[in-house]
Amino acid sequence: MKNRPPKSNRKPHHLVRMVRGAIAKRNLWLLPCLFACGLFLVTVVPGIAQPPSQGIELPSVVQQVSTPEQLLPQGRQNYEAGKFAEAANLWEQAAQGYAEQGAILNQAQALNYLSSAYQELGQWEQAEKAIATSLNLLQNSAQLESRGVALLAQALNTQGNLQLAKGQTEAALETWKQAEATYDRAGNQTGKLGTRINQAQALQSLGQYRRAKRLLEQLAQELQDQPNSLLKAEGLRSLGVALQTIGDLVQSKAILEESWAISQEFNSSTDTSATLLSIGNIARDLQQYDVALAYYQEAAQEAREPLGQAQAQLNQLSLWVDAQQPQEALPLVPEIESNLSNLSPSRASVYARVNLAESLMKMRNEQRDLTSANSQNIARILATAVQQAKQLQDPRAEAYALTQLGKLYEQTQQWQNAKGLTEEALKIAQRIDAADITARSAWQLGRLLKHQGNITEATAAYRNAFENLQSLRSDLVAINSEVQFSFKESVEPIYREFVGLLLQPNANQADLKQARQAIEALQLAELDNFFGDACLGIKPVQIDEIDAKAAVIYPIILSDRLEVIASLPNQPLRHYATPLPSHKIEATLEELYSSLYPGYSNTDRLQLSQQVYDWLIRPAEADLDSSGIKTLVFVLDGFLRNLPMGALYDGKQYLVEKYDIALSPGLQLFPQGLERQQLKVLAVGLTEARQGFSPLPSVEGEMAKISSQVSSEVLLNQEFTRTRFQSEIEDKSFPVVHLATHGQFSSNPAETFLLTWDDRIDVKDFDILFQKRKLGLVNPIELLVLSACQTAAGDNRATLGLAGLALRSGAHSTLASLWSVNDESTAKLMSEFYRQLTQDNGSITKAEALRQAQLSLLKDPSYKHPYFWASFVLIGNWL
């Protein structure tokens, strides 16, 4: 959160840096929202200005000789217009003028503003020097009167923002606590509220999501206690955006709707339009595209100024383009250009012009005869964006616009121009430490070098992009409306293409280790993107340290081949490839998935199963045999996650007949095992139909059988309420939690849940539900069993939900089903699993217990088809 200079005739304003939680389709870069001493102005989509005609120049940076009192508001006007270099120039003069006058408080204020401008320009040393001088002046003042205390609070706010931007998150948190106390001294409750929102952002960056959410909920209550006003409406809107950041979309929407109602009560079209845009963005995040479109359209109608109308129209445009309906998008283009023609050049106009070009480039790729989307028109838009950025002396905006212009030249196969522009953009981005733009431009340069056949330099460029993505991990899940940065289009391909370059036929061990690291990083990035936050802690481990009889198989689907890395204890990594286009690989995998249901030809199923076995296992078969491997651990990619590896067939037997099998989202996320305790189970479930789900009549027998085998506490039907379940989890120690209830795994976290008698538990609630155990206040869960859940039909990425739920619970191991299975066979498998687990004083591993339970069904003529036994998979610690 940054302090922002006040508008003329208003009290000091403060700039709040907020980012919204992300899903696969949305953006990456961070754009500040405005917290104005109680005014929260959420920037959703910047405006676009028409290209200036020849001969038109921007206003000069320095006016005629002016007093500091004149320079301060002039800088403010430029800052608010996105002209940060001009603002910095004016405020530097103002600070010098006040210093000559001996006006210490005014000098400190000007330096505070100057630091904010330098931060926008990426000039970190100058920003630090300016704010340090400001704080020194204020803190050395003998006795600060009320204005001085308020200025000190603002300066601390600015320092906290600078610390956060430089990655000093803990320092930023402490600084904002000081700012809060100082605002309290000054009696400025709105300033205090703003710093507490900043603290919530810092807590989120530190991964302390529960504390962040609790703080935001407290702030919501404080706002509720205030009388209705535009100040309250804007505060609620900023708070709603902050809650969206941590993925609490339900509460975010409720708060935004209240903000909307208050804005309407006071007839503020600007606030109403901005809030409608925010609600529309939540609907878009929830993949409710028709709803989002309706909100965007209403926001455009409500807006009274060209910028507000353009913001709403740009959101509509990108939505139609993403939906691949260019004919619906086309009529918006002239309307947008008409509205934007009245906007002056600014960073907002540069970013929005680039966004407009991005949408037009997508439209051009889909339908090349569109007049407004021809390459010459797009080039003109981007050239103007570059020109404006240079005139504004805004290196970040310039690097972003140059990268996009280079991308256009890449698409039109003007390779040398593309390379030159991209290298220029990369140089600027690296100079100002803009890791987000560096990642994007380095990736683009890598593609261009690869096209030239320069694999060595291309790999180095991709490594640069990969390393910058890793440094941005906590921000990759954030959204910002400045730029279009889709996870699926602009993040995931960097990992896959980097792996593809590393896994050359002559790849050395360093290349293979880097490729394995990139594969695991992709797994982690997908889960972060699924949750909308980087909540998963990582700790690299070696397979040798875990299990000397386990091998890890890393398959990854690339555009032109399937690559597999095999990691065996105390041996060099090896890799092998199957040269097939990705669409053919995925078609085979999807057909194999379909064949696992009864009614499909057994001959065809075994043939498909053997084909996939040949891809993944056959090349390593001899090494696995000679190494005495007992357990295969798969770090699966793409549609492979939907397939049970135990059902792969070598021509004579299934893989489960030879090996214990486990799944892992990567050894970086490997949960350390516990000493095997006396087995005690909390078994909960539903037998009756609830909330539209069918009854599960065999669950009662399943519970009874478990209770007869191990010490258990059972909550069935009416006893299995959300509140009772949470109480049992928090207050008692159960190494095993067994849930025999309906549930669904989906690629959409909002549709990943477990059913209780009176409610449902969403995946994002699991970390709160199991928080005491994860914090060590109660013994962690050794094993979480989900015996009646299923993946969402037609969702090729649904198993992300399964992996996410497993990790979010903090359970060391999770046993679950990839599809809904006959509940009688499930009860039989579960009974055998627990019987195996309790044999030999609990010395058998969980993976072996599952394998023996599956084999018991395989040997039963009634259940020998893989449909009955193969769907059950073990995720996490297999020991």
Structural features:
Serine Threonine Protein Phosphatase 5, Tetratricopeptide repeat, 879 residues, 56% helix, 36 helices, alpha/beta, globular, 6-stranded mixed β-sheet, Rossmann fold, disordered N terminus
Structural class of the helices, strands and pairings?
Answer: alpha/beta
What separation lies between the terminal Cα atoms? 46 Å
Q: What about the largest sheet? A: 6 strands, mixed
Strand content: 5-15%
Broad CATH class of the domain at 671-876:
Alpha Beta
- CATH architecture designation of the domain at 671-876: 3-Layer(aba) Sandwich
Would you write up a description of this structure?
It is a single chain. The protein is an alpha/beta fold. Among the domains are: 344-536, Tetratricopeptide repeat domain (Serine Threonine Protein Phosphatase 5, Tetratricopeptide repeat), CATH 1.25.40.10; 543-617 and 636-654, no CATH class; 671-876, Rossmann fold, CATH 3.40.50.1460. Helix content is 56%, strand content 10%. It contains 36 helices and 21 strands. The strands form five sheets. A six-stranded mixed sheet has the order 13-12-14-18-20-21, sandwiched between helices. Strands 9-8-7-10-11 form a five-stranded mixed sheet. Strand 15 (743-745) and strand 16 (753-755) form a beta hairpin. The longest helix is centred in the middle third of the chain and has 23 residues, at 509-531. The protein is globular, with a radius of gyration of 29 Å. The protein starts with a strand and ends with a strand.
